[in-house]
Amino acid sequence: MSLVSGPGKGGALGIDSTTLPDELHLATEKHVKYIQSLDTRKDELEYWLTEHLRLNGVYWGLTALHLLGHPTGLPRDETVSFVLSCQHENGGFGAAPGHDAHMLYTVSAVQILVMVDALDDLEERGKGGRARVGKFIADLQNRDNGSFAGDEWGETDTRFLYGALNALSLLHLLQLVDVGKAIGYVQACANFDGGYGVSPGAESHAGQVFTCVGALAILGRLDLVDQERLAGWLSERQLDSGGFNGRPEKLEDVCYSWWVGSSLAMINRLHWIDREKLARFILRCQVSSLRRPFVR
Asked: Helix (H, G, I), strand (E, B), or coil: what is residue 43?
């Protein structure tokens, strides 16, 4: 694996949508309808087997609708009521009503409420408002090393650290945590190849790169990232298909289009990949011929 500066396998081409065949264009309206249909499938087993992803799913669906130009594609009042129904007395949120509170679901809840301009609803109808949500998050920080647990049971992961800083920044409550210790923990997760792992000494992974770089971006400390080395590692995640893998010797997966692409964007190195090949790969993953189109 090369660690020198420069673009990876993909080169640095731009995107020209006029060169794409008709079958490789984003089926915007079909995607909107697919997202809107997801909560109507309560007679399907899959709906109940994925209940533990419900609140995260609302966030991703709402985000996709914004990107597709349909920010009001989900009913606001119903969305807010569902989010608030997932909150616990300790301020945290679960995946769905009756599920335990967890950092990941709490982050999604905050993101959703901010996107639909409903923080006032949290104050008026929530269980303690911003202050209690902030305390739930802050209490999950390990004040010795700066890491964050996902819940009361103590599992740590850089996903939780990024999520905590994301939510607290949106709530304007970053002062509740030890930011310096959090930065130190992220630095401890950096590897010789420029990437970041789930914890100090763990293998570099594109998802963890996003969380660590994202955390430093929120805190205004991207100066601590070895940007040339990291960009080299990230750009080498692009395979001949145009898609990205999450780590060396693994297959491509459309989800890494986000984890890798957004990380490169944060360090201003998107020109190190072949964006047109990536776009083609993503569109080839689109199942627009099915009753409910989606990107696999």
From this structure: coil
